Amino acid sequence: MRTRAAVLHEAPGNWHVEELELDEPKSGELLVEMVASGLCHSDDHYLQGDNTVSRLPLVGGHEGAGIVRRIGPDVIGFDIGDHVLTSFIPACGRCRWCASGKQNLCDNGAIIQVGHQIDGTYRMHTEDGRDVSTLALLGTFSQWQVYDQMSLIKIDKDIPLEVACLVTCGVQTGFGSATTAGEVQPGDVVIVAGVGGVGMNAVQGARECGAAHIIAVDPIEAKRDWSVEFGATEAFATLADCAGRIAELTNGQGADVVILTPSLVTNEIIAEGFAAIRKAGTVVVTGVSNESEEGQVPGINAFMLAMMQKRIQGALYGMKSPREAMPMLLDLYRAGNLKLDELITRTYRLDQINEATEDLRAGRNIRGVIVFNTQSASTPEETK
Ligand SMILES: NC(=O)c1ccc[n+]([C@@H]2O[C@H](COP(=O)([O-])OP(=O)(O)OC[C@H]3O[C@@H](n4cnc5c(N)ncnc54)[C@H](O)[C@@H]3O)[C@@H](O)[C@H]2O)c1
Ligand SMILES: [Zn+2]
Ligand SMILES: [Zn+2]
């Protein structure tokens, strides 16, 4: 069948919305009609060339929600019409990591930057017959998409998919960065540096944990203002600007937890975060850096790391298992304890994706969401 998708042909570059050929779902795969996909800064890292897959062209997008329309052989636990969310880590449920409740570290994570499906072949092809990679085995910027069952999470149908899609990356990642990676405790002083689609949910996570002070840091004034609506108690433009206030709040000791969720992580910001925490404090590194950036994280004194018993904690997917975390986050939303609707600043059509990307870079949105033209008329025959 044919689908319309946002394709990256060269990096740095822009999305080209074009028609692609999409294969039938193979063993363990499902055809999904997409309803919505959020734009995460990780998508932009591929446009900018900070991160890459092994070959272009690439269909981007990983914060998706849709409806199962066709089921390939050997699929267990899904029905036609199911509402599903995408997981950017395809979790097998069987490897050591999945078996120990750490699905975010599933061994299949090793192939998310490669571009092809689990079996080494591609489901998407250009009109002239070239194979097309998909981001994280997903590629949610496509009206229709074929996913491995390991990448899909079935959810209840009561929550609109335009809203539910947000929990698949930004919300799980940010929330877990505070609750699980940062282990924020009641009464803590927490700094969240970068309050976009991910960081705003670190603010919400810290609030759920009972942090006494949540200091949002972002150079963009609108983000600082929004952060207060999500639970930040104060907001500053830079980490340096909040240093005096942190000293005042902690008797000079430093913050309990600093969560780094800026657009792009650099060694310098890790060092700044390290300097801002107290003894036995934690710096959570969630934001992505340019993957070619090497080095020893200059500015971090190894003696102080040991003697002050500080912790630098990398965090993938908020250190939470997608199949456990996403339904839990939707439960919190239903109970009125997690803001999701308010995260959506603007929705776009797929053909407006470059405008949406511009708005992401300019910091105009908390989250921009692509809403697809989901038409039951275009639904293929629903057969197993
Ligand atoms: N570890 C993971 O599993 C994971 C998952 C998703 C996203 N990410 C990464 O998290 C980061 C944030 O993603 P997002 O979608 O929220 O991006 P976003 O663009 O929505 O938000 C980033 C925010 O950081 C702010 N910022 C930029 N430089 C800053 C600085 N020096 N100090 C403080 N704030 C600064 C920007 O103004 C913006 O508001 C990206 O690097 C993304 O790739 C990581
Ligand atoms: Zn993401
Ligand atoms: Zn696994």
Please give a structural write-up:
By secondary structure, this protein is an alpha/beta fold. The chain has two domains: 2-168 and 339-378, Medium-chain alcohol dehydrogenases, catalytic domain (Quinone Oxidoreductase, Chain A, domain 1, Alpha-Beta Complex); 171-316, Rossmann fold, CATH 3.40.50.720. It contains eleven helices and 18 strands. It has helices spanning 41-48, 96-99, 161-164, 170-181, 199-208, 221-229, 239-249, 267-276, 302-307, 322-334, 353-362, and strands at 2-8, 15-22, 29-38, 58-59, 63-71, 83-86, 124-125, 131-134, 144-148, 152-155, 189-193, 213-217, 234-236, 255-260, 277-285, 311-314, 344-348, 367-371. The strands form three sheets. Strands 3, 5, 6, 9, 10, 17 and 18 form a seven-stranded mixed β-sheet that branches. Strands 13-12-11-14-15-16 form a six-stranded parallel β-sheet, sandwiched between helices. Strands 1-2-7-8-4 form a five-stranded mixed β-barrel. β14 (255-260), α8 (267-276) and β15 form a beta-alpha-beta unit. α4 (170-181) crosses α5. The chain starts with a strand and ends in a 13-residue tail after the last strand. The model is unreliable at 376-384 (pLDDT under 50). Bound molecules: nicotinamide-adenine-dinucleotide (NAD) and zinc ion (2 copies).
